Amino acid sequence: MDWGALHTILGGVNKHSTSIGKIWLTVLFIFRIMILVVAAERVWGDEQDDFVCNTLQPGCKNVCYDHFFPISHIRLWALQLIFVSTPALLVAMHVAYRRHEKKRQFRKGDQKCEYKDIEEIRKQRFHIEGSLWWTYTSSIFFRLVFEAVFMYAFYFMYDGFRMPRLMKCNAWPCPNTVDCFVSRPTEKTVFTIFMIAVSSICILLNVAELCYLLTKFFLRRSKKAANQKQHPNHENKEETKQNEMNELISDSCQNTVIGFSS
Amino acid sequence: MSWGFLRDLLSGVNKYSTAIGRIWVAVVFLFRLLVYIVAAENIWKYEHDEFECNAKQPGCENVCFDHFFPISHIRLWALQLIVVSTPSLLVVFHVAYRENREKHHNQKLYKSPGKIDGGLLCTYLISLTLKTGFEVVFLVLFYKLYNGFEVPPLVKCDVRPCPNTVDCYISKPTEKMIFLRFLVATSCLCIVLNLSELSYLLFK
């Protein structure tokens, strides 16, 4: 088990996303997770073995390594990817909850429920409106926050995004000041800049998706208000049109997430 | 190590859980299992090789490592994940037993085999209590074995055959401490979720 499981979970969530959300997901998987697994892990694989200090003092290397790398780049990225993927689950849970409620109504024999059978509820499309809109928007907001926090933590911990070749260490038990050499500094710098760039692209995509959702929301509201003024008792054909637009925004699905469908 | 079995177990358990139970599964899956596999395992990979003592005495490093790490953090973490996920199997077995009974008698005995009522509610509550109990036991074990949740960069060792007292240096102590604290935080979150689910079911 590895990142494949996360891929399965997020693949299910993909069906609820807007088109920008789907692009974000693709960027996440191809340019971040795949790069992390295929390339970055190799580059950082021998980081402590090949971290060499110019001293015979036992323990000096360990202490200096720990001083300069409180948490490895690789682990920080892995944590970032996990945290950033998590808000999408909120949406999946919300959809599963709605579906569960409809099924409950159907089983009770509620007159309001217009479905003929359980299968129809499973296949039913949920529009991104009402509380689901709020869940979706908050999930994007949290994604943004996590991305920004991790990028800042990275910058703060490593004094920028460059990996120096040589570090001067005078932590005890190293005698005086000792030169320590990092393994593959240029390659690590290249990958660090790549990951930061892709992070920034993801942040931009999230901001764009947020603006898109807000614009749609306000447009829908103003159209509704205009409709109410003109035809207060008119059968809302405009709303049906709006619903069709919403269907374009969100595909829904039969199965949301492995294990989350009831 | 293949953790696929645990993933399948948790997915199966998810079907018969309450909403809080599902959040618990998500937390265990994402913040504990996934973090363990993609990040934590690698930190402890070469812990023995990188453990260095300031002595040339053969055997001193081995003896000191064994003295300070009777069982490695990472193994204890893995054990905790397995033991804490297992009580959920009780619920799965009970539902399977119910379905078997229905098939055997060829009639509908229960409103729905997966609905949490009657005997299944009892089983569910027991599994919740066991889960919480195991979490607490492991947290206490971690605390007692490692003197709190600290990983010091330097430990002083005077076990034979080390001559007098010897300085021994642990590799990546800060990173290990960060992940250990992460483990404790997620454990506590799971305990809180279990307790709220318990009170939700008891007072429903």
From TrEMBL, chain A:
Q: Which residues form a coiled coil?
A: none
Membrane topology category: Multi-pass membrane protein
User: What does UniProt give as GO cellular component?
Assistant: connexin complex
GO terms (molecular function) for this protein are:
gap junction channel activity
- The residues covered by the Connexin N-terminal domain are 42-75
- The Connexin cysteine-rich domain sits at 146-213
* Residue intervals passing through the bilayer: 23-40, 77-97, 132-158, 191-214
| Top-level taxon in the UniProt lineage | Eukaryota
* Gene3D superfamilies for the chain: Gap junction channel protein cysteine-rich domain (1.20.1440.80)
The UniProt entry, under InterPro entries, shows: Connexin, Connexin_CCC, Connexin_CS, Connexin_N, Connexin_N_sf
Q: Which GO terms describe its biological process?
A: cell-cell signaling; gap junction-mediated intercellular transport; sensory perception of sound
Which Pfam families does this UniProt record tie to the protein? Connexin
Reply yes or no: does the keyword Membrane apply: yes
The reply to whether Translocase figures as a keyword in the UniProt entry is no
Q: Report the subcellular localization.
A: Cell junction, Gap junction; Cell membrane
Question: Sorted alphabetically, which keywords does the UniProt record give?
Answer: Cell junction, Cell membrane, Gap junction, Hearing, Membrane, Transmembrane, Transmembrane helix
What is this protein's function per UniProt? One gap junction consists of a cluster of closely packed pairs of transmembrane channels, the connexons, through which materials of low MW diffuse from one cell to a neighboring cell.
User: Can you state the subunit structure given in the record?
Assistant: A connexon is composed of a hexamer of connexins.
Spell out the family assignment given in the record's similarity comment.
Belongs to the connexin family.
- Write the protein's name: Gap junction protein
Lineage per the UniProt record: Eukaryota, Metazoa, Chordata, Craniata, Vertebrata
From TrEMBL, chain B:
Domain (Connexin cysteine-rich) ranges: 134-201
Its record classes its membrane topology as:
Multi-pass membrane protein
Q: How does it assemble?
A: A connexon is composed of a hexamer of connexins.
Q: Tell me its family.
A: Belongs to the connexin family.
Q: What Pfam families does the record point to?
A: Connexin (PF00029)
Q: Which GO terms describe its molecular function?
A: gap junction channel activity
UniProt-recorded name of the protein: Gap junction protein
Q: What is the lineage of its organism?
A: Eukaryota, Metazoa, Chordata, Craniata, Vertebrata
